[in-house]
Amino acid sequence: MSTDRIRAKGLSIYRPIIYGNTAVVLTPEERETHPSREHTHRWTVAVRSAASAEDSDIVGGADDLGYFIRRVTFKLHETYPNPSRNIDKPPFEVTETGWGEFEIQIRITFIPEAGEKPVLLYHHLKLHPWTASGTDMEVPPPADVAAQLGPVHSWQYDEIVFTDPFQQFLNTLRAHPPTRLPKARRRPVPFHTANPGSLEASKGGVPEFTAVMEKDEIQRLEDAKKTIVAEQEKLRVGLIEKEKELERLRGELNET
């Protein structure tokens, strides 16, 4: 057997990614000439590296993920022509127009050398910024106000973990180390995630993932693992108790 097909037992290696979307309001001129007059926004859904390039207004995308991702399939709402969009090279993204928000299924397929199953992710397309309305409810602002506020951003940080990878694939990953996340934010807070009425909210801005966020996400994943283990143990103990009860009832039945 080739050494390339031998797995590196006991080793895990990960790659940080983000997935999500950005959206902008169509101008009156764009809406007037658009084939679908009811469309209100232009949006882009994407899978990118977590780190952002310096002096770039693009969220993430500092690294080319094509060295380990073979294809990303975005499954859009069924009302779109050809709703399953296969993107076979970076940038792994789809740009469309529309008027409604919906869930997008994202399927990541790795290069053949990885020997890994595809990963499924889900993202709820976000078009509207949410601002305080003076009540307990929050409502999206009018289109003209939203256009002035700037693009809406909705992104999720994640880590794709490869456990016991094939040696050839491991060599490929090690040859392309990910760009480090900045230790602190270098950009303004995006308006729709800042406190309404704050200075950052009025400025808008492009979100950026940082090393602090990465640590927070790792801790969240660890907490989730602990919760799952605790739930599994609880179910195991419950199953043992049920089995004991079943044996007791069987014994009583045999005695009658």
TrEMBL record:
<dbReference type="GO" id="GO:0000812">
    <property type="term" value="C:Swr1 complex"/>
</dbReference>
<keyword id="KW-0963">Cytoplasm</keyword>
<keyword id="KW-0227">DNA damage</keyword>
<keyword id="KW-0805">Transcription regulation</keyword>
<keyword id="KW-0234">DNA repair</keyword>
<comment type="similarity">
    <text>Belongs to the YAF9 family.</text>
</comment>
<dbReference type="GO" id="GO:0006281">
    <property type="term" value="P:DNA repair"/>
</dbReference>
<keyword id="KW-0010">Activator</keyword>
<keyword id="KW-0175">Coiled coil</keyword>
<feature type="region of interest" description="Disordered">
    <location>
        <begin position="178"/>
        <end position="204"/>
    </location>
</feature>
<dbReference type="InterPro" id="IPR005033">
    <property type="entry name" value="YEATS"/>
</dbReference>
<keyword id="KW-0804">Transcription</keyword>
<keyword id="KW-0539">Nucleus</keyword>
<comment type="subunit">
    <text>Component of the SWR1 chromatin-remodeling complex and of the NuA4 histone acetyltransferase complex.</text>
</comment>
<dbReference type="Pfam" id="PF03366">
    <property type="entry name" value="YEATS"/>
</dbReference>
<dbReference type="GO" id="GO:0006355">
    <property type="term" value="P:regulation of DNA-templated transcription"/>
</dbReference>
<feature type="domain" description="YEATS">
    <location>
        <begin position="7"/>
        <end position="176"/>
    </location>
</feature>
<dbReference type="InterPro" id="IPR055129">
    <property type="entry name" value="YEATS_dom"/>
</dbReference>
<comment type="function">
    <text>Component of the SWR1 complex which mediates the ATP-dependent exchange of histone H2A for an H2A variant leading to transcriptional regulation of selected genes by chromatin remodeling. Component of the NuA4 histone acetyltransferase complex which is involved in transcriptional activation of selected genes principally by acetylation of nucleosomal histones H4 and H2A. The NuA4 complex is also involved in DNA repair. Yaf9 may also be required for viability in conditions in which the structural integrity of the spindle is compromised.</text>
</comment>
<keyword id="KW-0156">Chromatin regulator</keyword>
<protein>
    <recommendedName>
        <fullName>Protein AF-9 homolog</fullName>
    </recommendedName>
</protein>
<dbReference type="InterPro" id="IPR038704">
    <property type="entry name" value="YEAST_sf"/>
</dbReference>
<dbReference type="GO" id="GO:0006325">
    <property type="term" value="P:chromatin organization"/>
</dbReference>
<dbReference type="GO" id="GO:0005737">
    <property type="term" value="C:cytoplasm"/>
</dbReference>
